[in-house]
Amino acid sequence: MFDVLTGAVPPAGRLPTTQYPSIYTQQIPMTNMSLRPGENNPGRTYKWYNGSAVFEFGTGLHYTNFTASISKALEQNISIASLVAGCTLQHKEDCAFNTFDVQVKNTGIKSAAAGNTTTSDYVALGFLAGKFGPAPYPKKSLVAYQRLHSIAPGANATANLNLTLGSLARVDGMGNTVLYPGDYAFMVDTQPLTMVNFTLYGNATVLDLWPQPPGDRHQNGTYFIGGFDGYTETVLNAS
Question: Collapsing DSSP states into helix, strand and coil, what is residue 83?
């Protein structure tokens, strides 16, 4: 712990949760499990919370500074039909979309007194944001990450952040994984340090169907059947 506090062993962790302000407990009942913000709900998790977090998900501290850039440009307009046509896997959400090669550089000191001598790890976080699928839209979603080890001052390292078609998809009300047309932004880190914008066009396409219950499913007694509201059925039958 002493080595961490003095910088002899530079930490490079990331906060895995959202640190809400104290007033958050007064803004939403703890029995309300809705993630999306509403009239009396500021939302939950980094994807939906619309307040000012004390520390947001993915916050990390270093004893040095980093910059990042994406070395390979991505086509700006991409056809959904072409993405799906080139996918031969049974589960299309597992098919590759793109690998973003992120060049990370340790740019050095945070104060003149410290000296430009801090070697540090860096965790590259890849987030996806944009307007695609039905509203409301998540603020952003973590889709890839990689830890780079021991980057010396002035040195570079490359994080290869792999995205699949599933990384771009959203889940509809029936549980199906759907790839939607719209505007997308791939961002590195929480600030972000760098980003790439692209557009998917064409028709919304289902990548994976979620199994649905049979249409004629029913029950006559009160014995619980998983995934079925037996109490409601019994009341309806009785009435």
Answer: helix
